[in-house]
Write a structure and sequence with these properties.
The protein has 10 helices and 13 strands. By secondary structure, it is α/β, with parallel strands linked by helices. It is globular. It has a single domain, classed as UDP-N-acetylmuramoyl-L-alanine:D-glutamate ligase.
Length: 336
């Protein structure tokens, strides 16, 4: 892609308004150092030096969008607890609208705590209760989305399999979106097998793609375009959901795009160093969808998504990137 084309799409992206719907959570990072082993058990003792908090899950998708577009709305379920208040505060600080976040008395806000020492994750602690979202929560969300959808150009469903997204709810929201003809993408979770009929694109990783296709992954080939099992899985997903395209993220191998109207398109990884993959998938679906809303082709959206993901895996924690960092990645990798 030419730098001028990338800049044009970024300028168009600034005008876009997007809505993210899915499993929201709070990411906590406890930073410390290890200098000894516990006398109580053969585990390291982490001396805490600092703590930091970030919007996680679907809220991190929204956070990745905000530096690039005009407005972002987030919809999901939180508890009536301190973590919900902290999450709302963080989102407000980033300029993300939260009126479509609905509180539930039955489910606490999901919190993922990562304990880091010497830039290595020692352990992760998850605080959550996996229950299906109550009907009253979905009804409240649907009322709010009905008024929000006319105000956005695209919608992203982010499924972490935590209970907020159900088939009936997705079908109802999908029907509302389909009437508008707007961009509609999904980052699926095979542990929550939903039908994604009607979406523009789904974005699984390799393991998820094989699981959703009902296939066993025999292992990656050096060249994804010569990986017969992967090509078969991609084609199977296009047919299974009857959708236009599937974007499969391949970790250190980059991404491959399956397009019903053309041959598979492969874009190799642009990452130079990988420090932390936390949230890289969130960046991928956010920038891919935004690029489509800005008028980019599927292949252009895949390239932008791939470059953005390469930037965030070079950072620690649940990271985002700026427009300048994205442009620098393209220039470093010989965009003309």
């Amino acid at each position: 892609m030419k730098v001028e084309r990338i800049q044009y799409l970024l300028d168009e992206a600034r005008k876009q308004r997007l809505l993210v719907v899915g499993d929201v959570m709070l990411d906590e990072f406890v930073w410390g150092k290890v200098s000894r082993i516990s006398p109580e058990a053969p585990v390291p003792v982490v001396e805490v030096q600092s703590e930091s908090f970030y919007p996680g899950g679907a809220a991190n998708v929204a956070r990745n969008l905000r530096p690039f577009c005009n407005a972002v709305q987030i919809s999901g379920m939180v508890g009536q607890d301190a973590a919900a208040g902290r999450l709302r505060s963080l989102l407000h600080d980033e300029g993300i609208a939260t009126e479509a976040l609905v509180e539930s008395v039955e489910m606490p806000t999901i919190v993922k705590t990562r304990i880091i020492a010497r830039q290595q994750q020692v352990v992760r602690v998850d605080r959550e209760r996996r229950i299906t979202a109550p009907k009253a929560v979905h009804e409240s969300v649907l009322r709010r989305l009905e008024s929000l959808l006319p105000e956005v150009e695209g919608v992203i469903f982010e499924d972490y399999g935590k209970g907020f997204l159900t088939q009936d709810f997705v079908d109802q929201v999908g029907a509302m979106i389909s009437k508008t003809g707007k961009i509609f993408t999904a980052d699926p979770n095979p542990g929550n097998p939903l039908r994604w009929t009607g979406v523009t694109t789904i974005k699984p990783n390799r393991a998820e793609a094989f699981a959703m296709a009902g296939m066993v992954d025999p292992g990656a080939s050096d060249d994804p375009l010569e990986d017969s099992a992967l090509l078969q899985a991609g084609a199977a997903l296009l047919e299974k959901f009857g959708i236009r395209s599937v974007l499969v993220t391949l970790s250190e191998h980059g991404m491959i795009l399956f397009d019903r109207e053309g041959p598979p398109y492969y874009t190799p990884t642009r990452a130079k160093e990988v420090f932390d993959v936390s949230g890289a998938g969130d960046t991928a679906i956010a920038l891919f969808t935004l690029a489509l809303c800005a008028g980019g082709t599927l292949q252009e959206a895949a390239e932008i998504s791939n470059h953005g993901s390469a930037v965030v895996v070079g950072k620690f924690g649940t990271a985002t990137l700026t427009q300048d960092e994205l442009l620098a990645s393209f220039k470093k990798n010989h965009a003309f």
